[in-house]
Amino acid sequence: MIQVHVFRKGHEETDVPVEDLSEVRQEAGTLVWVDVVNASKEEFAQMGEEFQIHPLALEDCAHRHQRPKVEEYPGQALVVAYGAQLRGGAAGGGTGADLRCELHELDLIVGENFLVDFHRGCPIDVEEVTRRVMARPELAAQGAGFLLYVLLDQLVDTFFPTLDGLGEQVEDLEEAVFAGDVSVQQRIFTLRKDLVAVRRVAGPMRDAMIVLLRRDLDLFDDEVRRYLQDIYDHLIRVVESIEDYQDLAASALESNLSVVSNKINEVARTLTAYAAIFAVITVVTGLYGMNFHHMPELAWRYGYAYSIALMVALAGGLWLYFRRKGWL
Questions:
Q1: What's the confidence (pLDDT) of residue 32?
Q2: Is the per-residue pLDDT at 195 higher than 50?
Q3: What CA–CA distance (Å, rounded) separates 318 from 253?
Q4: By C-alpha distance, which of 102, 104, 115 is closest to 68?
Q5: What is the rounded average pLDDT of the residues 203-227?
Q6: CB-count burial class (<10 Å; 0-12, 13-18, 19+) for 218
Q7: pTM of the model
Q8: What class is the 2-260 domain?
Q9: Domain segments of the chain as ranges
């Protein structure tokens, strides 16, 4: 599905035919934005023809799971970025512990006065993007740099509520660990997997912004670079937050392993105490079970009761001793 937005003279036009875009984008003071969702092969080819997109850039847009990057081509640049969302929680019929992080790829071809984006349901608010661009017509008239900033700003902003949700999961896991719940290990590994996935896109996105901020990239002026610098600062915050949560998740895992180890030690200590008690009983029964003729207790009328009492006394004494030491 192709959605066309043409901004000129402070107004937005959405009824411009796709086949006319190659001519429209030649008009001075005109900004063309094309939002392509779930593009077909024909739509990829049509966009490549209308905007003279480099074949390698078009190939990258057609294949999913690209690494975040910026690649410069004559008169245009390819920007691969990601947004993040939490799915599967209360809105999806689950609980906060069921939230999983989903990443959404957005491929952008940005030229001097046009921007074409390709995605498969990326969390972009088209109306909000249009409103922000219309609010700054002087920047929109200068080229596609401000539109690129607005789109990247929306994408980067999706990381903050996502990280807040993952941070709440970290806190819940820490509470569960210190409450003695040893069944949280799988949840910790799932959380760490989500954090690693976010880190793998946030870090390269931060590095890609450095390329956009270079002064030898002639697509943007200094004013646009000031806005893109804000995106770079936000990505630094995102990466730092991810690293903090990764450290907390690792600490929670270590604490969980320590709790499990302590419980195993408690069980082993209890079993050792009972083994000592039964060892004493075994000694007594083994002593009087020897087949010697000259054992006075064997011929004693109260020998059986004495042996029973001796075993009970020794076992009871050891039980009290281990009980006071906290082993039982």
A1: 92
A2: yes
A3: 37
A4: 104
A5: 85
A6: exposed
A7: 0.77
A8: alpha beta
A9: 2-260, 261-324
